[in-house]
Amino acid sequence: MQKVLLGVEAIAQGAIDGGMSGVYAYPGTPSTEITEYIQHSKYAKEKKIHSQWSANEKTAMEAALGMAYAGKRAMTCMKHVGLNVAADNFMNAAVTGVNGGMLVTVADDPSMHSSQNEQDSRYYGRFAQIPILEPSNQQEAYDMAYYGFQLSEQFGVPVMLRVTTRMAHSRAIVNLKETLPENEIKLPTNPSQFVLLPVNARKQYKKLLASQVNFEKASDESSFNQYFDGKDKSIGVIACGIAYNYLMEHFPEGCPFPVVKVSQYPLPRKKITRLSEETESILVLEEGYPIFEELLKGYLEKEKVKGRLDGTLPRDGELNPDLVAKALKLPVKYGLDIPKEVSNRPPALCVGCGHHDVYRALNEAVATFGEGRVFSDIGCYTLGALEPYRAINTCVDMGASITMAKGAADAGLVPALAVIGDSTFTHSGITGLIDAVAEKSPITIIISDNESTSMTGGQESAAKGIIEKVCLAVGVEAEHLHVINPVKKNHDEMVTLIKTELAYQGVSVIVPRRICVQKNRRDIKIRKAQVE
Amino acid sequence: MKTDIILAGVGGQGILSIASAIGVAALKKGLHVKQSETHGMSQRGGAVISHLRISDKPIFSDLIAEGNADLILSVEPMEAMRYLPYLSETGYIVTNTAPFINIPEYPAMKTIMGELNKNPRLVAIDADNTATELGSKLSSNMVMLGAASPFLNHIAAEDLEQGIIELFSRKGEDVVNVNLAALRAGKEFAANAIK
Ligand SMILES: Cc1ncc(C[n+]2csc(CCOP(=O)(O)OP(=O)(O)O)c2C)c(N)n1
Ligand code: SF4
Q1: CATH class of the domain defined by A226-327
Q2: Do A335 and B69 count as a contact with CB atoms less than 8 A apart?
Q3: CATH class of A354-519
Q4: A-B interface: how many C-beta pairs under 8 angstroms?
Q5: Record: contact B65-A455, CB cut-off 8 A
Q6: Which residues of B, range 36-55, sit inside 8 Å of A by Cβ?
Q7: Which of A100, A106, A151, A449 is most open to solvent, judged by the fewest CB atoms within 10 Å of its CB?
Q8: How far apart are CA B145 and CA B189, in angstroms?
Q9: Pairing mode, if any, of strands A132-133 and A264-265?
Q10: Where are the domains of chain A?
Q11: 3-class secondary structure, A321
Q12: Distance between CA atoms of A282 and A290, rounded to whole angstroms?
C-alpha cells in the first residue's frame, strides 16, 4: 500500500507497522504530529497502543523505557530541546540497555523556525554512544521507524531516530510494509541490568563500550549507508541525512564525485576510509552542527576536510540546494530581489486571546516598580515580549520563569514576577514552585491558564483541573492563591489583585483562567462531529 | 518534466488545501510529488510558504532552489512578492489581488501592483470577489487553483476537478459544486488573461 505522508507521519506509521505498543511524548515543533498521527490512527486505537501525552519529555522517556523493560516496543518523541529535559534518563538508558525495542525520536530545528536554539541531537546520540538513524527521505523515515525497533533489540540499546524540520514537515509517497505483531511481555533475563548501582553500572557500561565495534560494523553493512563511486576524485562528498537530497538535486543522473550517503551512525568506517583514500579532499554536508566534519578534520587538521568550519558552507542554519551548489562551485541561478516594500508579518496573539487581558493588567500593575522584573516562559504568551506589550523580560527554557524570578528575588530584585502557561507549569514549573515556597521567596507567579497546550496546536494540558490543588499541596498559602477570569470587565480587579500580591513578602500565585480561543473552536468542531 | 511551485499566503488562508488538491491529482496520474510546508506557531497571521514539486521522475530535494520555480501561486498579493527570488526566468506569478492586512506598515496596493506588473508573466485575479460572487468566499483558494491550472504542465483541469471531488466529498455535494465552480471561474479568468 502507498500513502502520502509527512516525514513525521511516516515515522508514526512505521512505528505502528513495526509492532510498537506505545508512544510517549510531550508536544514540540517539529515532532508533535508523530504522536497526533498515532492518536488518530484507527488501528492504534483498536490495538490500544498507548499514545496519551506525557507531562514532559523526561516522564515520557522514562515511561518508554519502562515499556521496553517489560519487553515491548516503545517510542518516545520530542523536539531537540526536549531531549535536554530527558537527558538524565537518556544517558542512563544507554547504560541499562533495553529489553524490548526502544526508539528515541528527536526532531531538530536548524534555522530555529520555532525554537530557542538549533542544537544537534546527533551530539547526544554520540554522547550516549548508541546508534543513530537519520533519514534522507520520507520512505527512509518510515523504514527506519519500522526497522529501528529490530536494531534496538538486536543490540539491546535504545536507538535514536533524528530528523530535522524539513524532513519532518515535507510530504512524499511512502510504500508501507506488512504490520508486525506487538511483542509479548517478557522480563529482562539479567535481573541486575536495570539496577544502576555502581557495581552493576560498571558492568553495563563495559558492555556498551564493547558493543561499539558492532554498531560500527552495522553502519558499514546498513543499506541506509551507501558508497557511490564517481569519476572526479578531486573531491569526495559525505552527505548526511537530508543533505543527500540537496546534493543529488544537482545530479539527477548521478554525481560525478564519489559520495558516501550516511543515514546510520556511528560513521561507516570502511566507506569513509575508502573515500578519504580515493579522493583529494572531502566535503561534509551535515544538516546541523559540523559534528562529523570536526571529527574527520581533527584538531591538527591533517585531513583536507571542507564544510561548515572553513566557510565552504555557513556555520549555522539549515542547508538547501543553493548552499550545496555553492559549496561545490556549481552554477547557481538567482531570481528577482524581494521588493523593499515587502514587510514582515510577525506572529501575534489571536484576537480575543486571554493572554492579552493578562498583559494589559500586568503592565498597569507593575508600572510603578520599573522595568526588568518579569520572568517568563515558553508558549503563546511569550509573544507578550513583542509589541504592543513588551511585558516580559525572559524566555529561556520551559519552567525557567519561576526559578529565575526566585533567583532574581534572592539577589534583591523585589518584587519579581513569573508568567508561565498551564502546560509549562506542569511540564517543569512545579519543582521551581517548591523551591520558592520552601524559602518564602517574595515572588508573584501568574499562571496564565488557557486550558490548553496552545503554542504547539492545542493539545490537552496535563494541568487541567489540578493547578490550585497542586499549588496548595506544595505549600502556597490559600490567601495568596487566586483564580480570575481574564476578561475586559475584570481588568481593574486583576490590576488590584496583582498589585496587592506584589506587596506580599512571600509566594503568591494568580491564575487567570479562560480557554484558548482556538482550542475552544476546535473542541466545538470535534463535539459537533461526534454528535453527527 | 518537472513543475516546481511556490505556494504562498498567510496562515489560515488555506494554501494547504491547494497543495492537497494538486497533490491528489498528481498521485492519480502516477507522478512523483514532494511538498514541504510551514508548521509551527499556531497563531494565525504569519507568512506561510509551501514548496510543491511534481515530476515524472523521482524528486530529490524537498526545497526548490532559487530561480527555479515555474510558478508562484499566492493567495495574497504582498506574499507573492516575498518569494520572487525563487521565480525562474520563464516562471509565472499567479496571485490573488485581495490583500490580507494584519500589520500596520502594509504597502499601498498601487505599489504592490506596480511591482508585480513588472513581471510580464502575471495573472492577477481578485479571487475573494470571484468566490463571493459564486456564493462562497471560502472557495477563494479554489479560484486561485483554477487560475493556476494552465501552468501545471502534467495536470489537466479535469484532474484537478477529480482532486477537488475527492477532497470535499465528505462535506457534501453543495460544497463540492461550489468549489468546482470556483475552479472553473479561476481557470477561465487565467485563460483570458494570457491570451
Ligand atoms: C523542553 C521543551 N519542550 C517543548 C517545547 C515546545 N513548546 C513550546 S511552548 C509549548 C506549550 C506551552 O503551553 P502552555 O504553557 O500551556 O502555553 P500556551 O501556548 O497554551 O499559551 C511547547 C510544548 C519547548 N520549547 N521546550
Ligand atoms: S492559539 Fe490560543 S493561546 Fe495562542 S494566541 Fe491564539 S488564542 Fe491565544
Answers
A1: alpha beta
A2: yes
A3: alpha beta
A4: 146
A5: no
A6: 36-47, 51
A7: A151
A8: 11
A9: antiparallel
A10: 2-210, 226-327, 354-519
A11: helix
A12: 13
Whose CA is closest to atom 8 on ligand 2?
A353
Span A2-210: which CATH code? Answer: 3.40.50.970
Pocket of ligand 2 (CB under 6 A): A 349-350, 353, 355, 380, 450, 454, 516-518; B 42-43
Per-residue pLDDT at B44 exceeds 70: no
Query: In the 8-state DSSP scheme, what is residue A127?
Result: H
Please tell me if the CB atom of residue A454 comes closer than 6 angstroms to any atom of ligand 1.
yes
**Does the structure show a pLDDT above 60 at B174?**
yes
Cell 512578492, residue located: B81
The region, left, alpha or beta by phi > 0 then psi within -120 to 50, assigned to residue A253 is alpha
Q: Hunting for cell 519543582 — which residue is that?
A: A431
Give the residue, by CA position, lying nearest to ligand 2 atom 2.
A516
- Distance between Cα A379 and ligand 2 center (Å): 9
Q: How far apart are CA B141 and CA B182, in angstroms?
A: 8
Q: A296: closest CA among A317, A318, A279, A314?
A: A279
Helix (H, G, I), strand (E, B) or coil at A375: strand
A7: nearest CA in chain B? Answer: B36
What distance in Å separates residue B136's CA from the closest CA in chain A?
20
What CA–CA distance (Å, rounded) separates A28 from A81?
9
Phi, psi for residue A468 in degrees, rounded to 5: -60, -45
- Write out chain B in H/E/C secondary structure: CEEEEEEEEECCCCHHHHHHHHHHHHHHCCCEEEEEECCCCCCCCCEEEEEEEEECCCCCCCCCCCCCEEEEEECCHHHHHHCHHHEEEEEEEEEECCCCCCCCCCCCHHHHHHHHHCCCCEEEECHHHHHHHCCCHHHHHHHHHHHHHHHCCCCCHHHHHHHHHHHHHHHCHHHHHHHHHHHHHHHHHHHHHCC
Task: Output the CA–CA distances (angstroms, integers) from residue A461 to A86, A321, A515, A519, B91, in the order listed.
Answer: 19, 39, 11, 11, 46
Domain boundaries, chain B: 2-193
CB B88 within 8 A of CB B67: yes
- A226-327 matches A2-210 in CATH topology: yes
B78's CB contacts (< 8 A; 6+ apart) are: A341, A342, A343, B99, B106, B107, B112
Q: How far is the CA of A380 from the centre of ligand 2 (A)?
A: 6
Contact A170, A39 (CB under 8 A): no
Q: How far is CA A4 from the centre of its chain?
A: 24
Distance CA A307, CA A319 (A): 11
- With a CB cutoff of 8 Å and minimum separation 6, the contacts of A249 are A321, A324, B60, B61, B65
What pLDDT is recorded for position B13?
Answer: 85
Residue A13's pLDDT is what? 98
In this prediction the pTM is 0.97
The number of angstroms, rounded, from the C-alpha of A87 to the middle of its chain's C-alpha atoms is 12
pLDDT digits (tens, 9 = 90+) for A449-497: 999 999 999 999 999 999 999 999 999 999 999 999 999 999 999 999 9
pLDDT per position as a tens digit, A179-225: 999 999 999 999 999 999 999 999 999 999 999 999 999 999 999 99
Across the interface, which of A171, A348, A455 has its CB nearest the CB of B34?
A171
Position B163 confidence tier, pLDDT thresholds 50, 70, 90? confident
Q: Which residues contact A331 (CB under 8 A, 6 or more apart)?
A: A325
Atom of ligand 2 nearest to the CA of A519: 2
* CA distance readout (Å), B35 to A53, A172, A275, B60, B157: 28, 7, 33, 11, 20
Give the least confident one: A95-104, A188-197, B32-41, B60-69: B32-41
* Distance (Å, whole) CA B184 – CA B173: 16
How high is the mean pLDDT of chain A?
Answer: 97
> Into which CATH architecture does domain B2-193 fall?
3-Layer(aba) Sandwich (3.40)
B62 touches A: beta carbon within 8 Å = yes
- pLDDT at site A364: 97
